[in-house]
Amino acid sequence: MGSSASEAKKSRAGRDLPAALTVAVALIAVIVASLAYVKVGFLLVVGAAILVALWELGRALALGGTWMPAPPMAAGALGMIAGSYYGGPDVLVGVLAGTVLVSMLWRMPRGQDGYVRDISATVLCLVYLPFLASFVALLLAPDDGVQRVLTFFAVTIASDTGGYVVGVAFGRHPMAPGISPKKSWEGFAGSVLTCMAAGAACMAYLLDSDVWVGLVLGGAVAVAATFGDLAESLIKRDLGIKDMSNILPGHGGIMDRLDSLLAAVAVVYLVLHFLLPVA
Description:
This protein is mainly α. The chain folds into two domains: 38-141, no CATH class; 143-279, no CATH class. It is 76% helix and 3% strand. The chain has helices at residues 2-8, 17-37, 39-62, 70-87, 89-107, 115-140, 145-170, 185-205, 211-239, 254-275, and strands at residues 174-176, 180-184. The relative contact order is 0.12. The model is unreliable at 1-9 (pLDDT under 50).
């Protein structure tokens, strides 16, 4: 009887739904509060999340014997986020390049065995996590940066939510059964529709722009967010793990919440950069 009650609380995605909703609301509250208080406070939240995500991914890779230089990676991650906000894309690329070079030097004393493997994993982690996350700092930098960041979160959350709800209700045709069995084409259609609707609303009420820009943004983000989710699922399958960690009840790890966000943020930045340039 107790087991049945417990199972009833779980969604078709295999998560504890009440716990997942509680954590989701708490995370959204932290994001909104940090944005409302001061921009730098939000960057501190982003930096903390990326450091935890680096630890999660590094720990998972270490199970297969991979070693990565944590000190330069952590310093470089924070440098990329801060550098992007204060110096723009050029500083972001420069800090990434410098971090890779320092990491290569840091690894040398351990010898040649596994060197290419370790450095390849290091570069993957640096690009996948702090480099992509730094695009949110680029979004935040302009005078209307808070609105741009809120738009980013709104469309990405709309994509995830629409895909989940429509997929659970109507999902019949698997999109990538070998990677993420529960992800369906019907769910993807739900992602596109809800994401485009959120994009249009954000253009109208947050950024005072044309609705068509929001439709383009929503369509692009839905594709990117879905790709990000599938990419992280593939990484976890390759590593033989279900979640990156268990620090977020009902969600898994920080990485398990960042998958679609990391893939979407660069797309949001580029679409807004070209279709809604900063004055």
